[in-house]
Specification:
The structure is a single chain. By secondary structure, the protein is mostly helical. It has one domain. It has six helices and no strands. Helix 1 crosses helix 2 and helix 3 packs antiparallel against helix 4. The radius of gyration is 18 Å and the shape is globular. The protein starts with a helix and ends in a 22-residue tail after the last helix.
């Protein structure tokens, strides 16, 4: 993949991310920042795919980049991290494999449909694993509030003294 092709993919990733940012009512001042994080994640994913990486691994790295940028930008601009991460992963959503799964099943090609369904599930899992890994890396050792209860299972009802 040439540099021009990679920049073109970055432009399309930027436009897709910023477009969904408009759809999700992201503040106007944050649209370029959202677009940047989505473009970087999409460019990394496309570069790895062009280098011969497996689509699941490339998607994981792209989502990791979006997560790292999103969490860092959220702290820098003091806005919710979902503004950057949700819009940034939109270019990586596996719409084509999901559509192919339905088409294969409708054509009674069950083995190919199952293969496509598994790939779709793995791609979705890679997106979520990349975002979770970014969050773990950036919040590891975060002790800003020593009395802050960490973990979803500990919300409500636990009093720490």
């Amino acid at each position: 993949m040439s540099d021009a092709d990679l920049l073109e993919q970055g432009l399309w990733g930027f436009l897709a991310t910023a477009g969904f940012g408009v759809l999700f009512n992201v503040p106007l001042a944050m649209l370029p920042v959202c677009g940047f994080s989505g473009a970087m994640g999409h460019m990394w994913r496309q570069a790895l795919l062009a280098a011969g990486a497996h689509p699941v691994a490339a998607t994981f790295v792209g989502a990791l980049i979006v997560g790292l940028l999103g969490y860092s930008q959220a702290r820098f601009f003091h806005v919710p991290r979902l503004i950057f991460t949700v819009t940034g992963i939109i270019p990586m959503v596996p719409g084509v494999p999901a559509f192919e799964t339905i088409v294969y099943f409708l054509r009674d090609d069950i083995p190919t449909g199952l293969e496509s369904a598994v790939l779709t599930g793995l791609l979705v899992s890679a997106i979520s694993a990349g975002l979770v890994t970014a969050r773990l890396l950036l919040t590891l050792g975060d002790t800003a509030s020593p009395h802050h209860v960490r973990g979803l299972w500990q919300r409500g009802g636990l009093d720490r003294e």
